[in-house]
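Students often ask why we bother predicting the structure of a whole assembly rather than each chain alone. The short answer is interfaces. A chain on its own may look different once its partners are present, and contacts between molecules only exist in the joint model. In this exercise we take three input lines together and write out one structure for the complete complex. Read the inputs first and try to guess which parts will touch.
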Amino acid sequence: MSAPLAADFYDRPVLEVARDLVGCVVAHDGASGAIVETEAYHDSEPACHAFVGVTNRTRTLFGPPGRAYVYRSYGIHALLNAVCEPEGVGAAVLIRALEPLEGIERMRARRGLDRLEQLCSGPGKLTQALGIEPGENDTPLTGAGPVTILPRPAAWSDVELVASERIGITKAVELPWRFCARGSAHVSVRP
DNA sequence: CATGGGATTGACT
DNA sequence: GTCAATCCCATGC
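Now the answer. The structure tokens for the assembled complex follow.
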């Protein structure tokens, strides 16, 4: 198995990283899946949490690239992001859906569901399936932390992307900053 | 210190 | 299609 993606992978424009992360593999606590859906967020646009500047909440987004930004959404779900761009820029890629690869029985147990297509087809679902929690905010994705992201397996090297508008936001809704693997049955909402 | 609003999901009409 | 759950944080008085 290959080594996790290094910090310099994330130290680039967030849109590039969002595209390149599709097909890469997220692993946590005995389970893993290939990323089939991402969204980019940048402090220059109002849909991004970092738009308000550095606060206690957004500190992770402005920190060094290659760390996890995990936060609680609607009081219920944990959402996983990969922090991008140089320290001082608030930008991250939201991981929105996975195709399950390893630890599928574990994911089923955590989710209380059988169907493969429903295990990780949404940002709150995949964190539940993998067991990722808000306490893992600001931990490295590059190997030393509980969550790691590995390069694309050979089978995903030529994955075709579809760009579309981001889901579930009320500001800057027109930006085509969402990227899905074409034809995947594991995305949250079909583009 | 009070309040409003989510980068969602699942259950229900 | 509609709606409640649930809590942390940013904002404003």
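Check your guess against this: Residues 39, 41, 47-49, 71, 73-77, 79, 81, 94, 96, 122-125, 166-170, 188 of chain A lie near DNA strand B (CB under 10 Å from a C1').
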